[in-house]
Each structure stands twice: as structure tokens, then as C-alpha cells.
Write a structure and sequence with these properties.
- With 245 residues, the protein is mainly beta.
- The protein has one domain.
- It is 3% helix and 45% strand.
- Strands 1-30-26-22-18-14-10-7-4-2-3 form an 11-stranded mixed β-sheet, covered by helices on one side.
- Strand 2 and strand 3 form a beta hairpin.
- The longest helix is centred in the first third of the chain and has 7 residues.
Length: 245
């Protein structure tokens, strides 16, 4: 398989994503609105929605949500008041199916777990654009502790942190097309390779940092077996190494 690394520039730029690390101000009950309709779970709101609808999320929604249609999932408030999609330590919070194109904004994905299929926090097989999203504290028994991407994924001003996989890709396992903008990958752990990210697909990173990640084997920050482009992206302070490219 082809392996290539393009470094367009490496600058001491702190990613704008650091602003997303705050936890919610409260743990209010889950509430999802679609126009005048209100639901007590995200899955119920998704099931009732028509393609193209915009769902507004508030509080903490616990459980798994499977999205099979084109939707916008928007947190009700940015910053410290962002809502939470939690797996409750037992399920993956969010799955995007192949036929779906989804925009996800201003939410926290945490405490997810997947025993099969990978992607402890998010599994994307469709097309997902995530903006100001924090993916943290998720785990899997397979690959992609935080995110498993098998489709098209764009991460903007987001943070993937403190996720864990016993195999590859503690933070992200990318087997599709991945583009990041001002997004940080920090403090993730893989028992095998690619503590921060295992890039089997094509990945391009614009800005952000990859730091504090750990792999049991190699590629503490990033391990790529395909094409990786780093544009103004800093990769440093990972164990046992920064980038196997």
C-alpha cells in the first residue's frame, strides 16, 4: 500500500480547537427539538425527522443514535453549555450510515463504547462534517477509540482527546477520506499502532496539534500507510514517536 507524507508547513500555531474543552454547565435531561416538535431522545427525533431537517439538542442524551438520512444535528449552545451525547459506557453514541450526509455542531461525544465494528464515540460510514465537537473519553475493543471513519469526514475546530483502543487508532482510525481544520488530537492511547491516528485512508490536516498520544507499538502520534498531508500542523510529544509516515 502506498505511503506518502506531505508537509506544507509546520508552524507554532495553537489550534482554535482548544476553546472546546470545557465541560457542560449542567447535566439537564435530553431534549431534542425539530421545529415545534420535541423529543426526549435523539434517536426518537432522528426517526421522526424528514431528510434535510435540523434537530436542536440540549442536555445530556444517553444511548446510541443511528442516522440513516441527511440531517443537521446542532447543539443548542456553544462553549461550556454544549449538550452531551453519551454512550453511558456501554454503547457508541453516534453512527452515520452510508446513505446519510450529516452536519454535527457544538456537542460533546463521550463515554462511548463499542465491542464490535470499532469507533467508540463515532462510526462514520457516510459523510460527516463535525464543527466545534469534542470527542473524549470513549473506548473500543477493536479500532478507533474516538472515531472510526470509513466514509468522508471533515473535522473543524474540534478536539479528539483521551480515547482508547487496544489495537489501532486510539483517537482516530481513518480508512476513508479525512480533512481536519484547526483540530487537535491529544492524549489518546492505542495498544498497537497510531496512538493519535492510524491513517489507512487519505488524510489532510490543516492546522492543529497532535500531541500527548501513546502507542504500544509504533506511531505514537500518527501512523499512516497511505497519503498524509500536514499543513501548519504540529506533531510533537508523542510516545514512542511522533509520526511513522
Amino acid at each position: 500500500m502506498r505511503r506518502a507524507l506531505t508537509v506544507l508547513a509546520v508552524a507554532g500555531i495553537a489550534a482554535a480547537a482548544v476553546a472546546v474543552v470545557a465541560t457542560p454547565a449542567s447535566a439537564a435531561a435530553c431534549r431534542v427539538t425539530n421545529g415545534s416538535a420535541a423529543f426526549g431522545s435523539l434517536q426518537a427525533a432522528v426517526d421522526a425527522a424528514a431528510a434535510g431537517d435540523r434537530l436542536v439538542i440540549s442536555g445530556t442524551c444517553t444511548g446510541g443514535t443511528d442516522v440513516t438520512k441527511d440531517l443537521t444535528l446542532a447543539g443548542s449552545a456553544p462553549g461550556p453549555d454544549r449538550p452531551v451525547l453519551s454512550g453511558g459506557g456501554t454503547v457508541r453514541p453516534l453512527t452515520i450510515e452510508p446513505q446519510a450526509t450529516v452536519t454535527l455542531t457544538d456537542v460533546i461525544i463521550r463515554n462511548g463504547s463499542s465491542a464490535a465494528g470499532g469507533g467508540g464515540g463515532i462510526q462514520n460510514v457516510g459523510s460527516l462534517t463535525a464543527i466545534r465537537v469534542l470527542v473524549t473519553g470513549n473506548r473500543t475493543s477493536v479500532a478507533g477509540g474516538g472515531i472510526l471513519n470509513l466514509g468522508d469526514l471533515v473535522l473543524t475546530r474540534s478536539l479528539v482527546s483521551s480515547n482508547r483502543s487496544p489495537l489501532e487508532g486510539g483517537g482516530i482510525f481513518n480508512a476513508g477520506d479525512l480533512v481536519t481544520w484547526s483540530t487537535d488530537i491529544k492524549g489518546n492511547t492505542a495498544g498497537g499502532v497510531g496512538g493519535g491516528m492510524f491513517a489507512e485512508g487519505v488524510a489532510t490536516m490543516h492546522g492543529g496539534v497532535v500531541t500527548g498520544n501513546t502507542a504500544g507499538d509504533t506511531g505514537g502520534g500518527i501512523l499512516t500507510v497511505n497519503v498524509l498531508t500536514l499543513d501548519n500542523t504540529r506533531v510533537f510529544g508523542n510516545v514512542p514517536d511522533d509520526c511513522v509516515c
